Predict the structure.
Amino acid sequence: MLGDLASSFCKRRLGLRSGQSIPLLDQIPETLLPLWPMLPALGASAMEMAIAIAAFTAIDLLLTRLLRRHHAHCS
């Protein structure tokens, strides 16, 4: 939730409309902010955290594109 709050805050400051999708701004805070405080408990390195952020971003962008295409096809 904190990551979503941070990206929403940035969007409002940039004057973007609510719900507007901004690649990377939507994914990075939503992955980074939960992972960062968990690093000591997970024992993850900065490189592992970067890989997790990149993987989440790639998966989210791919699934979003596929679901939008599927929704448009079914409508």
About this structure: The longest helix spans residues 46-74.
